[in-house]
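Re: the pair you flagged

First of the two:
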Amino acid sequence: MQTLNSERDAYRNCLDRMLRATTQGTRIHGLKVLDVDRFRLINQVAGFNAGDEFLGHLHKTLSASLLEGDRLFYLGEDSFAMLCPYRGLKELYAESEQLLDELGGRQVTLGGICLDVHFSIGVAQTEETDQSWEAATLRAERGLFKAKSDGGSCVRAELTQDGEPHQAPAQTPWVECIHHAFLHDGFSLVYSELVDSDFVLTDILLKSGGESVPIADLRVELGSMDLLLAMDRWVLTKLSESSTLANKTLVRLSRASVCAQQFMRFLQRLLTAHPELADKLWFAVSERELADVRPQLQQFLEALKGLGCHAVLLDAGTTADSLGHLSELSVSTVTPFPQALNYQPDLREAVIQAMEGVAGAVGKDFIGTPFSL
């Protein structure tokens, strides 16, 4: 019982961390709840020991199907939950249907009796309005109930009154905002995607000039500043090796890189070996992330300018304090803090007007209106 309680506690704690990331406007995460179809019949026909063995077999099978970063939890009786960071309903549906195709209907022999593997899946995604882990779990369980009601061996999500899967309010992760904002000006987005510190990044996709480079060997716990720095260096090294690097490639740098002198030395060596990168790479840094270390930000941007590199200031605020120093920064382009555009639509026009006015006053270009909401 203690083991089961610990498993449930771990599930709640992990899902709560995911919800905090969603309510802070960073990411949507996914949840799958899985239930064995007609499990009582298995116990009746094969006995409780065989039923326990069956659950153990299913746990191993599901564990083997997890993607990098996913977590599997046993919730008791014949129920399991899978937490899937950074994936919404569309991805969850496709993954669950594939899982059913691969595993559903398989036979396993336990206690001398051949048992069929059948299960149903309910899926949900976290939402900004979720107050606790129970809300997301309840939506997934309603989807599971719908799957059971439809005969089992299928995947379902909670339906709205219109009969459509329940979706979170439309929101665009700020990475996507940056991408859309720069698309109109011929930029390609090459991004080492920063995720929440509670999770481990095990796979990054670099996209450059139509080329996707999977990074399977990088295992970085993003709570470590040293590892954030290592990730930025690793990504830039990969970009220098790309044969199809776009002429205007936006690269987001972490706070760790901006504040570390060794990163600038690394960048100097990289540009000495690959001078063509100075014109191709546009380094994006977050004013919001670095508001408390503005001297280091100023020094870093000046160093970039000295190397002949382009710099873009992201997440610029709208207060006099945060905007007053823009004219002193060595950047050509500023963008607003995307949450002000995405999650406060009533303030969107005011934010854009304020940023356009300030950017013009300090001689900077402003990119805000092309954001996709």
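Second of the two:
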Amino acid sequence: MFPTTFATAAIFILTYAGVALGRIPGLRLDRAGIALTGAALMMTVGAITPEEAYRAIDLDTLALLLGMMIVVAHLKLSGFFRLLTGWALAHAHSPLVLLATVAVTTGALSAFLVNDAVCLVMAPLVIEVTRSLRRDPIPYLLAVAMASNVGSTATITGNPQNMIVGAVSRIPYTTFAATLAPVAAAGLLLVIVLLAALWWDEFRRPAQLTAKSSPPRLHRPQLIKAVLVTLGVIVSFFAGVPVAKAAILGGALLLITRAIKARKVYREIDGSLLLMFAGLFVVVAAEEKILFTPAAVGAMQTFHLDNVYILTAVTAMLSNIISNVPAVLALKPF
């Protein structure tokens, strides 16, 4: 038993170290490849059987993430985000209003759509807008980065780690949102105030923002369909429909189209993230099975991880070292 325990611990540590670094020196493995290799090694050393590995993969989380990626892809390809940016530009009559508009828009979108995808869409649009207005792009890009993280805390579908927390805890979508949406709203206000204070030279003088902008290219029928399906998915979340079911059904409905080629949608899907999730689910399940014996769990109680403040500090530290998703999965037993 000891060799298996030692091998399991070594594989877990090396896998998480690789995920934290994002690569293995001398190899072309990315985070997804590292996680899948770790999962394969766990099965090889007997820490987990193939059947247990299959059961360890949370298909609800993967389906939810995949469905939301498809929804975001259709919103992007139909021109929704460009239309939204154009509206924001038309109504932002000063640098401070533009900052607030970018932060609130990014935060609101990140609350219901996957924040990673929102960042990938919003960042180039913000760069384009700030260049056309001849403004410093840095505070506005920081608003995207910070507001996407803050806004995504509001709901289960805001980011991948929330999806895992929701799947494990079975907290209802409405309960989660009612508890954390006010926190997210306060956080967005803090983001705006903080950036305005740090870049005071950018915002202290009122400036009339004018920029020549051509109407965004839209596919109106597909845009209307994408918006209606997205709203339907969000309403389904609050109505108590299982989030994975609502998201994957919404994604499937959007794929039924003659307007957008499927391969364009598939290019927008982060397949490596889905693979990393699958691999880490197996690695963590093997760790729980072999390493989390009653004696080990008793020893871990000395760290008082049942204390919300200590758990918060540990989670924050791990999230900055190994990234959010691996940290949440590693702390799942607690």
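The chain is about 75% helix and 0% strand.

-B.
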